[in-house]
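The records we work with from here on pair a chain with its fold. These numbers are not coordinates but entries in a learned vocabulary of local backbone shapes. To see the layout at work, look at the sequence and tokens printed below.
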Amino acid sequence: MLCMGEISPQLADNEAWVDQTFEKCDDILHRQVYLGQGRQEGLLVYVEVAVSNLMLEDSVIGKLLNRLLSMDTKEIYGTLENNSLGISDTKELFTLEEAMAAMFAGNAVLFVDGYDRAIKIGSKGYPGSGVQKTDSEKGLRGSKEAFSESVKMNTALIRKRIRNAKMKAEEKQVGRYSATTTALLYLDGVVYLPICEEMRKRLDAFEVDGIEDGGMIEYLTRKKKEGRFPVYQTTERPDRAAQAILEGRVVLLTDNSPEALIFPATLNSLFQTADDYYRNERIVTFLRLIRYVAAFLALALPGLYVAAATFHPQLLPGNLIRSMAEARSGVPFPTAAEVLLMELSFELLREAGLRMPGPAGNTIGIVGGLIVGQAAVSANLVSPITVTVAALTALGSFSIPNEELSEVFRLWKYGILLLGSCFGILGVMLGCFLLLMLMAEQESYGIPWLYPYVGGNLNERADEKDSMFLAAARKRKRRPIFAKWGNRIRFRRKS
């Protein structure tokens, strides 16, 4: 019996290894083939669904086998060794490990009697969705393409946008049993190489049965202190990933995942969108200010309302106080309880809308919110102003471009609500101060998470031109701090 690592020139030995290794694997087929005019024996091994219609004239496998059939037996070995057929999608394999990996990657593997190597023959691979339209990152301008679930196709979508050999794509298998292909994409000469090396170390630092999505890698490669806030930026848009690579950042693609991980990620980058750079800088600045205001509303509005209504009514206009008192007449719960009730109700509606199939999900989020809010007001369970506060908070969370960041603010909202209900405005300020303190402590691959709002001098204040306020493209001459020092100039005027 063969040991792993050897390909025998005796076809019987290779066939015995195939039979033993793939026993009870009914989806893996191995077929006897006869090559050349002397009827030389061969063995074709492949995954059934990944390789179909083998003998079609327009397939690589069909062309290769048909050409070999017409040769003399003596010509077959030389033709295979030198790839005299000129078929680009074939490759010699020297070990059984290589043969098995190539087969599980969706290719066919050909063993020939008397030949101590195997031949990988490219095929269409596993079935999967093609290039789709972006769903979660919609924009008015820019590409409408979205990543698929094939790491090869996703790499090609980025390569289409960066047509330069300096863009590297390093592939690595992750997962003891799944052997999921990951690809590390970066721009050589621009990227700060220790960032890539750190990701390689983190990928090698764990062993897991399988990786089914890039989100698993996101959480397995985070350090302990990086779990408070997102240190990766997720995107389903190839143009956004290409922008990040040109900035000097690194993109990680995972097979079977329609999203890419971009790192390092900062608070500022999480508030940016792909089409920010396709539109007028004044409009973009206005929209970014709205996003920051929306984030503050999603975080602190419920706590501020409870604090003002319970502890500091003197801060409100007299007419508003009277309106609030009239609206709350007959409500059996204290202000903090009714705000908490409405916030949890909106969270329930959000979760139900995500799990509902098709258009019903979008409908239940909007109509359900209106119905529940109106019913609660009619039943005197909550006041109308509480429904308004909850609705504005929900809209604020939806306006944050990054879902992971939105989830962090949604959780912190309840902590600030508790502090506001106990200590008033002082409690809200304490909660916000604690949040800022934790943000200031956070790093993403050595980059301060609050950059450029802290440490802006590290890149000569250049990154402040692409922060809350966006400067014109001709003024953003330097790459962000993520790029390698000494190669940060990205815009020059031609003489």
Observations:
- The chain is about 45% helix and 15% strand.
- The radius of gyration is 29 Å.
